[in-house]
């Protein structure tokens, strides 16, 4: 039988509240219903025991509760878990759980594919299929939490990064709604300090995101000059690097908060001592810390991984100039779950 009812997860808190009030329900009903959906992860209205039976029935007649469907789960030797998820129109995306010492971080996707086609990133090769809806973005978390619960994992999911497929600020409307579900005390209830959104920097939208105060900011810079950035990420570089950096210098930050600058070291391309010195100069006015990522070669790689000695030299130059830099350890490479390796090559996605 074809399911014609609407997925209730696609309604935000206010929309559910209005729907209930229009049916003569009290205002606080939304506060009772919402946690069942997002905090308790219940998929059946009949289990919502603090709602009257008639209301549960009306809800079930009008709505369904649908999560993205898990099509495949791959577990890496290092504990990284990659999920292949099918959305309601059968489009496929990936999300990754990354184990840390005492918690998990989840890497979330925000678009099916990506339109930016950065030359070193696998997702770019897929092209852009469509934006994800806010509930699809947030429901990736439900899937991961459900998986951890079923495994009786002693470690909990506490941190989120928008570093999966897609450019979140090219889908800001839906990403913002998703962040509201994620932040909501009756929803997924993650504090903004535990959420990082990663972007190449989209003019105008980056400033809106800063004002929203919904998450911390990471910027994929990857080159210390406009000329080099144009070569390795031509579409992203349409916003001039110097303009981007001046916006970052003015970016609203709470006390002790810093912007994370992501820099993928591509062997022989952007990893020389001169590049490191240029980067120091470029970022002199920005309150930031630098995440260095050694390039993960994908299938048909154009680039090579940086050499250990070049990484160390690069890092050392940044430190000697008083910048905070850390080399991010890459996880999940054996299951293609590391940075820039998310790609779904499937007929279904064409
Ligand atoms: N579009 C957003 C979100 C994706 S985040 C952004 O670019 O920030 C994914 C991170 O992994 C980005 O910093 C991206 O530049 C980086 N990345 C992409 N391909 C990579 C690769 N092959 N090796 C290492 N890091 C890569």
Which CATH first-tier class of the largest domain would you pick?
A: Alpha Beta
Gross CATH architecture of the largest domain:
Alpha-Beta Barrel
Overall radius of gyration: 21 Å
Give the DSSP E fraction (strand runs of 2 or more residues): 15-25%
Number of domains: 2
Give the fraction of residues assigned to helices.
Answer: 25-40%
How many DSSP-defined strands? 14
Instruction: Describe the largest sheet.
Output: 10 strands, mixed
Q: What ions, cofactors and ligands are bound? A: S-adenosyl-L-homocysteine
Q: Could you spell the SSE succession in H and E letters?
A: EHHHEEEEEEHEHEHEHEHHEHEHE
**Structural class, from helix and strand content?**
alpha/beta
Strand order of the largest sheet: 3-4-5-6-9-10-11-12-13-14
Number of helices: 11
CATH domain topology of the largest domain:
TIM Barrel
Q: Would you write up a description of this structure?
A:
By secondary structure, this protein is an alpha/beta fold. The protein has two domains: 6-64, DNA polymerase, domain 1, CATH 1.10.150.530; 69-349, TIM Barrel. It is built from eleven helices and 14 strands. It has helices at 13-22, 29-38, 53-62, 122-126, 134-150, 172-183, 205-212, 226-232, 241-249, 273-282, 308-320, and strands at 6-7, 63-64, 69-75, 81-86, 92-99, 103-107, 111-113, 128-131, 156-162, 195-199, 216-220, 259-265, 288-294, 324-328. The chain has a ten-stranded mixed β-sheet, covered by helices on one side. Strands 1-2 form a two-stranded parallel ribbon. The protein has a two-stranded antiparallel ribbon with strand order 7-8. Helix 5 (134-150) packs across helix 6 (172-183). The model has no long low-confidence stretch (mean pLDDT 95). The protein binds S-adenosyl-L-homocysteine. S-adenosyl-L-homocysteine (SAH) binds next to strand 10 and strand 12.
């Amino acid at each position: 039988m074809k399911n014609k009812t609407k997925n209730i997860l696609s309604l935000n808190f206010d929309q559910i509240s209005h729907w209930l009030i229009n049916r003569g329900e009290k205002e606080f009903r939304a506060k009772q219903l919402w946690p069942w959906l997002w905090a308790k992860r219940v998929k059946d209205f009949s289990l919502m025991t603090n709602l009257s039976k008639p209301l549960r029935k009306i809800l079930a007649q009008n709505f369904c509760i649908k999560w993205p469907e898990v099509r495949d789960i791959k577990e890496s030797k290092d504990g990284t878990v990659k999920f292949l998820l099918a959305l309601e129109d059968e489009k496929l995306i990936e999300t990754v759980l990354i184990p840390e010492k005492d918690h998990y971080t989840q890497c979330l996707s925000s678009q099916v594919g990506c339109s930016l086609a950065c030359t070193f990133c696998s997702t770019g090769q897929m092209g852009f299929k469509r934006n994800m809806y806010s509930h699809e973005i947030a429901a990736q978390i439900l899937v991961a939490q459900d998986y951890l619960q079923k495994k009786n994992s002693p470690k909990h999911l506490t941190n989120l990064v928008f570093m999966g497929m897609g450019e979140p600020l090219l889908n800001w409307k839906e990403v913002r709604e998703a962040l509201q579900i994620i932040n909501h005390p009756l929803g997924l209830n993650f504090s903004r300090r535990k959420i990082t959104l990663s972007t190449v920097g989209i003019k105008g939208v980056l400033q809106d995101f800063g004002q929203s105060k919904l998450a911390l900011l990471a910027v994929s810079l990857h080159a210390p000059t406009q000329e080099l950035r144009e070569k390795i990420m031509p579409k992203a570089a349409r916003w001039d690097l110097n303009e981007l950096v001046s916006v970052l210098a003015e970016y609203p930050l709470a006390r002790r908060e810093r912007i994370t600058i992501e820099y993928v070291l591509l062997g022989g391309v952007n990893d020389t001592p001169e590049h490191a010195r240029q980067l120091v100069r470029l970022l002199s006015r920005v309150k930031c810390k630098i995440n260095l990522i050694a390039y993960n070669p994908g299938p048909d790689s154009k680039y090579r991984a940086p050499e250990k000695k070049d990484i160390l030299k690069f890092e050392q130059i940044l430190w000697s100039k008083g910048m905070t830099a850390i080399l991010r350890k890459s996880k999940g490479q054996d299951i293609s779950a590391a940075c820039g390796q998310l790609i779904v090559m499937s007929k279904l996605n064409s």
